[in-house]
Amino acid sequence: MIGCLSVSHESSFRSQSMHSRVGCVPQRSGGLAALVVDDNPMVLQCTDAMLKKLGFTTHMAGGGAEALALLKDSACDLILTDYAMPMIDGYQLGQKAKAIFAVPRVVIMTGHCQAAVAQLTNDPYIDGWLFKPFRMQHLKEMLLSIGLPVDFANQSQVMGKLEN
User: Fold this and answer.
1) Selected residue with higher pLDDT from 32 and 8
2) CB 3.0–4.6 Å: which of 3, 81, 112, 116 could bond 37 by disulfide?
3) How much is the pLDDT for 30?
């Protein structure tokens, strides 16, 4: 179910243009790969489904430790992770993913207010934020703002179905 994450506020704290950053993303013949990390199974599955509809190959992890184990075996272009998770939070995961596995993009999903995460807005390990709950359009805008292309043909079909 794609519409299970609803109205919210989304924000990207990066102002670099999409055109200047797209070249930094490693392209694979199978498209871009994303790792979705959340300890809430509903959020995990809904976010995974949205990314698939936007043309990503996806993998899911229920927490930071599981995500790091997956990264040992496969590369990804994007990690979309919950902020508040037990053991390894989203920020710690972002740090490790970039430092150890050279993941080019990390986006944090959070239900916390913007003021609570404001101190991390210019952090080199975090490329953007999505505030939960969010819609497919918010996710698409975030991905474009951090220089990741989305499957526009598939996106227009999906958005049409969601709006009906």
Assistant:
1) 32
2) 81
3) 58
Residues 6+ apart with CB under 8 A from 28: none
Of 103, 107, 149, nearest to 13 by C-alpha is 107
In the chain the domains, ranked by start, together with CATH numbers, are: 2-14+28-163 (3.40.50.2300)
Per the document, the length of the chain is: 164
Closest to 34 measured CA to CA, from 143, 137, 121: 143
Q: How many CB atoms lie within 10 A of CB 95?
A: 17
Cα–chain-centroid distance for residue 10? Answer: 12
Tokens of 100: 């150890």
pTM flag (> 0.70):
yes
Amino acid identity of 115? Answer: A
Bin 55: left if φ > 0, else alpha if -120 < ψ < 50, else beta: left
> Is the dihedral angle over the CA atoms 64, 66, 80, 100 positive or is it negative?
positive
pLDDT tens for residues 42-77?
999 999 999 999 999 999 999 999 999 999 998 999
* DSSP code at position 96: H
